[in-house]
DNA sequence: GGACTACCAGCTGTCTACAATAGATAGGAC
DNA sequence: GTCCTATCTATTGTAGACAGCTGGTAGTCC
C-alpha cells in the first residue's frame, strides 16, 4: 500500500490538491498528450488515494476545461485540433486585452511585486533551457495578470484560454527543427522583453499602453505559429 | 428509501444528470439564493443517490462557476455581491459581442431554427407571466448563440457570464415595486423584439448588425439595472 | 459574572466493496 | 472465409460505512 510508505512524496496531508496540481501541470506541459486517456485506478495508486476523490478531482478539471468526460467512458485530455489554433487566436486577444487593461487599472503594489517574481523565474527558465518551466511560468505570468484584473468573469475565461496557450506553445517549442531556427531565440528574447514592458505599463497604470503591448505579444505568438504551421518551402533546386 | 419508490420522479435512469440540471436551474432562478449553503446529504436523499455522485456533481458545478467549495466547509452558491454588477457589465459586452459576431458568421440553418424555437418559448413565458421560464429561456437563447459561434473558448466564457446575467435579471424581475413600474412592460417587450432582430441578423450572416443589436440589448439591461440600483427619489413633498 | 476549555453533534472527506456497462475475443452459422 | 453473436473481462458508476475536522454548547474555573 503506497500511502503507508512515509518516503512516498505523494503521501502528503493534502494529496488531492497535489493530484489536481500535478494533472494540470502534466496537461499544460503536454506530458499528458491531448486526447490521451486517463486511468482512474492508476492515478489513485500513484497518489495514494482511492477512486472517489480521484473522480471528484477529474470532475473539477473537466469543469475547468482540462479534460473531457463522457458517461461510461474513460476521461480524456481535452483534444487540441487544427481548429483550436484558429479558435484561439480569434478569441484570445479579446480576453487578454480585457484582462490586461483591468489589471493596469486595479493592480496593487504587492501584486506587481509578485508579477515581477514570476517574470524572474520565467527568465531563469529561458536561461536554463528549461522548456517545461518556461511554459509553466509563462502560464503563471498571464494568470497573475488575470487575477490582478479583480474581475470574477475575466479570470475563468482567461484560464480556459491559457490552457491551450501553453499547449500550443509547447508544440512549437519542443519541435527540434523549429528550435534550431535562428528566429526561435529571437522570439524567446522578444517575448521576455515584452513581458517586462507589460509589467511596466501595468505598474504605471497605463491601460492603453498595456493593451498595445499585449496585442503585440499575442501577435508575435500568432506569427510564429503561422510560420510553424505553414512554413516557407525548402530552398532546394531539382536541377542537378 | 426513496429510490425504490417507482413513482419518485427522480428515480429516472440518469439521476445524476437530473441532479445537475435541477441545481443549475435552481441557482439561475435564485430558488437557491447566492451564498446559500448546499447540504450533500439532503440532495442525495432528494435525488435517490448516495453522497459520492452528489459530490462529483458539486465539483463539476464548482468548475462551471455555479457554486464555491472550500475544504471542510459546506458548498455555497456563488455569491452575487455589489461588485458583481459592475464586473459583469464591464466584461459581458466583450463576450456577448464575440459570441454573436462568430455566430453570425458560422451558424447553420438547423441552429437558426432551434434559436427561433427558444425565442418562441421565451415569448410564451413572457405572455404567461412565468418569470422563471422567462429567465431560463433567455439563458438558453444566449447560450444557443454561444454554441452557434463554434468556438471552444467563447462558450465557457459566455456560460460563466450567463449564470450571473440570469441571477441579476431575476433580482430585478421579482422585485414587486419594479414589476409594477410601467417601464417594466416596455423593457420586456423591447428585449423580446431585440431577440427577434438578433435572430434576423444572424440568419442574414450580418456580424456588424448583430454586434450593434447585442450591444443595444445589453445596454437596455444595463440602464434598467442602474435605474433599479439607484432609482430617482420619490415624488413626496414634506409640506403638510 | 465572564471567559476559557473540554466535550459533543453534525458535517465533510475517504475507503472498501459491489453493481452495471462497454469493448474485446472467441465461437459458430451461413 | 466472412459475418454475426454471445460470453467474458476490464473499467466506470454507485452504495454504505468509517475517520477527521469544525462549530457550537455546556460546564467549570478564575
From TrEMBL, chains A, B:
Keywords: DNA-binding, Transcription, Transcription regulation. PANTHER family: HTH-TYPE TRANSCRIPTIONAL REPRESSOR NANR, TRANSCRIPTIONAL REGULATOR, GNTR FAMILY. Gene3D superfamilies: GntR ligand-binding domain-like, Winged helix-like DNA-binding domain superfamily/Winged helix DNA-binding domain. This is GntR family transcriptional regulator. Residues 13-80 form the HTH gntR-type domain. It comes from Tabrizicola soli. Coiled coil: none annotated. InterPro entries: GntR_C, TF_FadR/GntR_C, Tscrpt_reg_HTH_GntR, WH-like_DNA-bd_sf, WH_DNA-bd_sf. It comes from the Bacteria. The keyword Transcription regulation applies.
